[in-house]
Amino acid sequence: MTLDIPTWIVNNPEAGAKVGILSHEEAIAATHYNNEYFMRNRKGVKNGGAKILNVLQGAGHAAADEWYELMKGYCDPAQYPDTHFNGWAMGGQNMCDVHLILKRLIALKYDGLLQEGVHDWMHFLGTSKLEWAVLLTVIQRNVRKYANPAFTISFDCASPFLATANGQVYYENAFPHDGKWSYKMMPSADDKKYSTDTRKYSDAVVQDGIFPSFTDSPISAMCQMRDICIYKPGVPKAGVTITPENFQDESLYDVLPDKNKNDKWGRTSWDSFSYALLMGHNVWMHLTAVQEANRRFDAGEFPSMMRSQATGERFDEIVERIFAAPTRAESEAIIEQYDNYWTEIIGGRGRLGKKVRHVTDTIFNSLFEMPEYEEPELNEQLLDNLEGQ
User: Fold this and answer.
1) Strand, coil or helix: what is 28?
2) pLDDT tens, position by position, 45-70
3) Is the C-alpha dihedral spanning 200, 203, 207, 208 positive or negative?
4) Each residue of 104-113: pLDDT tens digit?
5) How far, in Å, CA of 275 to CA of 259, rounded?
6) How far is CA 281 from CA 28, 185, 231, 302, in A?
7) How far does the chain reach from its first CA to its final CA, in angstroms?
8) Whole-angstrom distance, CA of residue 101 vs CA of residue 199
9) CA neighbours closer than 13 Å in the CB half-sphere of residue 238
10) Neighbours of 367 (CB within 10 A)
C-alpha cells in the first residue's frame, strides 16, 4: 500500500500535532506528496517492481468522494504509463460502509480503473465482522463477472491477536441460518494451579467450566493445560495466606514461585510462548470461520444481515442487479434505491451501526478491529506479563 495519511489523524489532536497534520486538506496534501514520490521513484511492475495499492481514505461520503477524485489518477495508466498504482486499498469509511463501497466500485468500473491485468486487487483494511467474509465474496464474484475476471478482494484484522492480549480465546464459531454469524471468545484459563496439569487443554477448560464448549485447532489439540499455564505458584509457609498485595514477599514461601524472563514474579501463569500458542489457535479459528461461512452461504444458508428486513431480498440478488445494469446511472439508481437496507448492515469493524454514513473515525478504530463481542477492559495482569517477556 501507499504511504497515505489516514483521516483519523485530523480527528485526533494529539496524533495530528505530533505529525503536523491538523486538517483534512493537509492529510490530502501529504498523501499527494507521498504518492508523487512513488511516481518518481518506483520501478513499476513492467520493470520488475512490486505491485502497489492506492489507499482510499475519508470519514463520511463527501470526504471519501473528494479523496477518490483527487487520488484516482495515480491508478491511471494514461497519466502514469509505467508507474501507476496497481489496485486499491479501502480505508476510512470506504472499508465499512456498503453503500459507499458499491458506489465506489461502480465509479471504478466506469472510470476504467478496474482493468484486468492492471487493477486486479482490492484490500479492505481492518475487517473483522464474520458476515463481511460472505458480503465481500459476493462483491468479488460480481466484479469478476461484470468488470474484471481477475479481480480479488482481501481483508485483514488484528482481532485474534488483540483478543489474546486481553486474555480472550476463540472457543466456537456460530452460523445460525438467518441469524447472527460470529466468532465466540471468552477469557481463558490463567491460574498457576494448572502448571502441572497434564489434561488436554480443550478438555480441561470445559471440565472446569471455563468454557461451555471448545473447538480444537491443530495447535490447541496438541496442548496440555500446563503448556499454557506455565508458571508454578510456589509453596507458602504454614499458616500464610498469599494475596495480590503480598505475593512478592519471598519470606512468605517455603518454595518460591517461578519468575519470568525478567527475573520478576507476575500474577499471570502465562509466559510469552503461551501467548504465541493461543494467538495461533485464534488465527486458525478466525480463518476457518471465514472459510466455513462461505461454504455455508454457497449451500443456501445465510446470516440475517445478508437479507433486507424490509423487502426480504437477499444481498447477493441486489448486488447482481447493480452490476448487471447496462449503464452507470442505472447502477447508481439501484444503489440509492436500497439506501435503507445499507444502513441495516453493520460495518466491517463490528462497531458501526445504522449511522455508519456519518461516523467519524477514531484512532483506535482506525488501527484495530475487534469482533462483535463485548470488549473487555485490558487485562493489566496479562499486559504486565506481555511487557515482561
Assistant:
1) helix
2) 888 889 999 999 988 899 899 999 99
3) positive
4) 999 999 999 9
5) 17
6) 40, 12, 20, 26
7) 31
8) 48
9) 0
10) 13
